[in-house]
Amino acid sequence: MNPPKPSAPAPAPAPAPAPAAEHARARASKTVAQAVAGVAGVLALWLGATGAMLWATLAPDERSQAATLLGPRAALLLLAATVLLAALAWAVPRLHRRWVLAPALLADQARVLLGSDSAPDLPTQAGADLQGLAQTLNLLVAQRRQLRADVAQQVQLASREIEQERNRLAALMSELSQAVVVCNLDGRVLLYNASARAEFRALSQAPALADGAELIGLGRSIYTVFDRRLVAHALEQIDQRHRAGQTSPTAQFLTSTPGGQLLRVQMAPVRAAEAIEAGGAGGAGGAAPPVNGFVLMLANITLEFEQASVRDGLLLGLTEGSRASLGNLTAAVEMLEYPDLDTAQRERFQAVVRDELALMRQRIQDLAARTSQSLVTRWPLEDMLGADLVAAAQRRIDAMPGLRAAASTVDATLWLRVDSFSLLQALAYLAGRLADEYGITMVELRLTAAPTASTAPAAALLPGATAGPATHAHLDLIWTGQAMSTETVMGWEADAMRSGSGASPLTVREVVQRHGGEFWFERERVRHQAFFRFLLPVADAARGVLAAAAAPVQLAPHDSRPEYYDFDLFKHTGLSGALDDRRLDALSYTVFDTETTGLEPAKGDQILQIGATRLVNGKLRRQESFEQLVDPQRDIPAAGIPIHGITPAMVRGQPVIAAVLPAFHAFAQDTVLVAHNAAFDMRFLQLQEAATGLRFDQPVLDTLLLSAVVHPAQPSHRLEDIAGRLGVAVLGRHTALGDALVTAEVFLRLIPLLAEQGIHTLGQAREAAQRTYYARVSY
């Protein structure tokens, strides 16, 4: 967290209160003193009342004798009273610790033990009376843990098949190139794949800052990207098409995002499980089967739309320009048909014909060039085993008349990233020209890894010189016989490819450009051989380049089967209800933490880092996190650097808080905020409201206050101490995201402990937290 953020901050403007432990001790001492005073008062009252009643029953002479008897012994009576009071002062605290405080602490520890299977056992070194109770509770909890383990094992066995189906779905979804998002009827995301995550990162207005996290996430609303009315209209279309007789109706719409991207969205309904089990497909004119969600398949068509617009503009220019040129040509030809034209007029009309023909030729050439460039970039590259590509090229060349091909050296481990169709066309074209113009009848194909130190031709003849994993491969077309000049090779490279009766508007150069590679000609004078060499990307190296070209931001590392789904969210509808009336385990949370330059936001201390994670459907979504360094635009005190580890060099060049807060505000939208000692972090956010125009007005829960609610007898509510009591591992302490993750784990374990005290809803939790001592502090 911060250097160091206090667990019990001081109320302003009063002096700093005692720490939590001292406060607890002072409270216990006050209770004991009150108990001693109470017992002494009761005893004194009883003795006084007894003495008064005895005095009232005595005769006057007896009273005189009693006074004479007790008078000299008054000091002895005072000493006896003092000894009695000392005995009370000695006994009452011990009795309080043994019979009041010790049972209360044991009760707190027992509640922790019951709420978490990972919590430590109850201490058994207490007094004999409580030691037996603690041992008995430990045995009962051990039995419960064993029963839970047995139940969990049975549940695991029973759900294995379902889990396998989910894993298959996760594997399928993660490998799909199509961006897919599944939502419930409230528009809450319950499944998305890696392609969708990448797509939303590209749509983000600040992808380098928030990594797209403010747009996509389980439990997030899809309406942050799409207009709610568009989705509602698409669902109405699906219902109408079902009533018209379609068995699997879908709908499609186009929309633009706040970042200016154009999306094509195809929607399909998700039917309720009851309808599927009942076979309720419905029929023409019948009622539509119940739907509890929808699937969205997204395609970013911004570039496609722009290319289509350019293409339409070219065609329109060609059409309109050609129409005018044809009109001029027609008029000029008609005039040339007159036999009485003089020489000057005839030359002028002939010039018109030449000029218009030149203009038409230029327009057609421009259109052909733009079309050729579109062909270069239109088709995607695919992974292909290099040996398979060589085999396909060998068959293609063998099918050409008068030509044979052989594979000399082929690295069977190489996977290439290629457009196999155009590459095979290029190989066949070059082999055909060798046969037609130089009489070559036999060619060889060779595939080897390219040296990583250099991709220049001079390094190409150093077999085995790679210093690491190959990023490119050499594909050679080799022949023995007459060589050719470099000018001839350049001409072949620039000509449109023709092979037999087939033709392509592409050139060899454009095919190479499509692969991001190179092409050159070399001679091997010792062997009297020559070869054309293609430098091609291998699959692993090309994948990152293609991903970068497809989206502005590359994917962050993640598992191949990420947990980007939660089908239980199908059950969560009606989110428009009051949040205070919602159950704690049914809400979505943003758990966050800040690292700051100091502890006094009102005196100019600034945020250095914001870290946050999400809790959805009672589960911690570690992969949906927000972490961003912030340039505080002020010095970082040296005393705090060893605590948070953030140096001036780390924040230099980072965005300022005015740029970071909008992304964090969007990330936390529609969720309840959770933090440890939240008043401290919220004060830093509130001080930025005027500058950014953003208000964090959603409900806030504080794990410090909630810990004081469930464990009022505990002397410390520091995050580490709470985590230790609840069995939460503390990792990455004093980093914003690390503290947020620990706080999230702590909060998840506090929810069932709150429920044991009858605190089930958000409103109840907030009321209970405000009644604690720590709720009175401010910054």
Please give a structural write-up.
With 779 residues, this protein is of the alpha+beta class. It folds into five domains: 58-130; 164-300, PAS domain (Beta-Lactamase, 2-Layer Sandwich); 305-378; 382-550, Heat Shock Protein 90, CATH 3.30.565.10; 577-776, Ribonuclease H-like superfamily/Ribonuclease H (Nucleotidyltransferase, domain 5, 2-Layer Sandwich), CATH 3.30.420. The protein contains 25 helices and 19 strands. The strands form five sheets. It has a five-stranded antiparallel beta sheet with strand order 2-1-5-4-3. It has a five-stranded mixed beta sheet with strand order 7-9-10-14-13. A hairpin with a 2-residue loop joins strand 11 and strand 12 (502-507). The longest helix has 42 residues, at 74-115. The model is unreliable at 8-22, 281-285, 453-467 and 541-563 (pLDDT under 50).
Can you describe this structure in just a few lines?
The chain is an alpha+beta fold and 779 residues long.
Largest sheet: 5 strands, antiparallel
- Outline, from the CA principal axes? elongated
- Calculate the terminal CA-CA distance, rounded to whole Å: 16 Å
Radius of gyration: 41 Å
The chain-level structural class is: alpha+beta
The residue fraction in helices comes out at: 40-55%
Question: How many β strands by DSSP?
Answer: 19
What's the CATH first level of the largest domain?
Alpha Beta
Task: Give the uncertain stretches in residue-range form.
Answer: 8-22, 281-285, 453-467, 541-563
Total number of helices: 25
